[in-house]
Amino acid sequence: KPLDWKLIKAMIWTETGAAVTAWKTRPIQIGNTGDEGIKEVVIPARPRKYNIIIPKTWNTYLINKTDLIRSNPEYNIRAGIALLMIKMSETEKDKIVYDNENEDTYEVVEGDRGYSSIAKKIGTTQSVLTKLNGVKVIHPGDKLKYKKAHLEQYIPGWLLFTPENIQKQYNIDPTKAQPGHRGDHTYADKIRFTYALIVADESK
User: Among 8, 82, 111, 201, which one is most buried in terms of CB atoms within 10 A?
Assistant: First the structure.
C-alpha cells in the first residue's frame, strides 16, 4: 500500500506551517538542534534497513547532506519521510531465494576452508549447504550437494501509520519522554485534526 501523501502533509503542517520561519528551510523539522534522527538518514546506523526501504535515487538528497537537509525544504521533507519509514518498520530479516530448483554436486578441493568459502565460490549460501549436507568437517574429494541460491533482505512488517504511532516514532513516545526532550504530547491529536482538514478540502 502506498504511503498516504496526505499524512505527510499533515505532519508538515503539524511540525511547522506557513506562518513559521522554519517553513522555508525545515518544514518537517528534521535536523533541529539536538535532533538525533538526522543521523539515521545522513550516515545510516542501520544501513541494511536503510537500503531496503529508501530508494537509491534519494541518496543524493540524504547521504552526507546534513547542511542541505537543515536549509533546503525539499531535502528536509525527503529526510523526514525517510526517517519516518525507517522508524515505522520492523527489524529487517534475511531470506534464502533459490535461483532454480536444480540440485548440483561440488567436489571439495585443497584450499576450501569450509561451507562459507565454498558457498561464495559456487553461488549458494552456507545455510543451503548445511541443509543439504548436514554439519560436518569437509575434506578434499568430498562431494557436496547444493542448489544455486542467494540471500535477500526484507522488511517483515510495519507499524500501522496511525497518528499515535507516528507520534511515538517520529516525535516522542509520551511514556518515555526525558527531561529536556519532552516532545509534543498533543502531536497525535494535531495530526488527526490536520489530516481531517486536508481530506475535507480534497473532497470539495
Answer: 82
